[in-house]
Amino acid sequence: MAFMSISVAPSNAGGASGLHCVRNYTGLRPSTGLRLFNAGISIKRSSRSLVVIRASDTGEVSLKKTGLSIEECEAAVVAGNGPEAPPATPKAAAPAGTPLVQSLPLKRRPRRNRKSPALRASFQETYLTPANLVYPLFIHEGEEDTPIGAMPGCYRLGWRHGLLEEVSKARDFGVNSIVLFPKVPDALKSPIGDEAYNENGLVPRAIRLLKHKYPDLVIYTDVALDPYSSDGHDGIVREDGVIMNDETVHQLCKQAVAQARAGADVVSPSDMMDGRVRAIRAALDAERFEDVSIMSYTAKYASGFYGPFREALDSNPRFGDKKTYQMNPANYREALIETQADEAEGADILLVKPGLPYLDVVRLLRDNSSLPIAAYQVSGEYSMIKAAGVLKMIDEEKVMMESLMCLRRAGADMILTYFALQAARCLCGEKR
């Protein structure tokens, strides 16, 4: 339907002068005092003004300035000679055959708050920004970046070059937090994982390089023995296959101090040994690293979603499994025991791993702790979305963003995700 345009000009002038304004008045009701005739007729209001109404096929309303003062405009309105608005937009027609029914007697219609993009944005409860994302990066001793077969789009980055380039890309889109995972040469692995606290090892060298290049970069580290263990477990393995708790914690403390000395901002024990947060906090404080934070893997489950990660680090256990120290996926209340222990021992951040399959646990920690909550969208979650996207079963970008928003909605303040750079580009408006 054509809209109406209204021109208001002094009747003794040949035309209106001044700025030409175009404005959309869709939805305003016309005054009952205005009589509409065929398009193009003029209605004489007074000796001072002339109102001309014209039909517009473009949907725009043209109002020319009259040159009247504010007082004259107000006087014209008070006298009933003000300009009229165009007619209201008619209600859209329903499809043929739509039944005619009486309106349901509903006091509340939640859809009213969803009817336009502007309203939906106004009432959105959860937001995701690049600042909520932590980018896990795999590093190795090589010069070249090597693709990880089970994780499309992810690489083992050369610590001298590829790592710096990937961090630079992430920072360009607002991701300024990373976590490092090393692929350690087999020749340096041992049953007690002593390479973990070599201060000239791969991770400390990478930290020092990154801090030299990007002093404000927030660097998280992984505190666990599995990348350094010849047995592939997070702790020292006894002859009978038992993971030794207290002896492992002793090694973890030395690892955390070595990482802090290199410049790590946050050390992240992922081993699930009992008492390790208290011991690491004491070790850091004893070395005057009181400002180094601890992000504890509070609820880390013995999950099947870790497979691609273990390929990336070549850290599969040689025997046994990790169920004697990682949590049972069937357990929910047990996460509260771990939460209370980590809080009491001095953790600064609590993490749930994996993420999406454990949204209920994320919410449990959020409701029972005032500490920041992190969630790890692990390699299996990432690879499934990537694979389904390649097969055109899903829209990869939409599912990626929805999955991250779900983690935020469940209560995660921050998300460790291999999608960090891709999601940040999407959030910043870059086309896929």
Automatic annotation (TrEMBL):
Pathway the protein acts in: Porphyrin-containing compound metabolism; protoporphyrin-IX biosynthesis; coproporphyrinogen-III from 5-aminolevulinate: step 1/4
Cofactor(s) the protein requires to work: Mg(2+)
Subcellular location: Plastid, Chloroplast
Any matching Pfam family: ALAD
GO molecular function: porphobilinogen synthase activity; zinc ion binding
Keywords, in A-Z order: Allosteric enzyme, Chlorophyll biosynthesis, Chloroplast, Heme biosynthesis, Lyase, Magnesium, Metal-binding, Plastid, Porphyrin biosynthesis, Transit peptide
Subunit structure comment from the entry: Homooctamer.
Family note: Belongs to the ALAD family.
Classification via PANTHER family: DELTA-AMINOLEVULINIC ACID DEHYDRATASE
Protein name according to UniProt: Delta-aminolevulinic acid dehydratase
Highest classification ranks of the organism: Eukaryota, Viridiplantae, Streptophyta, Embryophyta, Tracheophyta
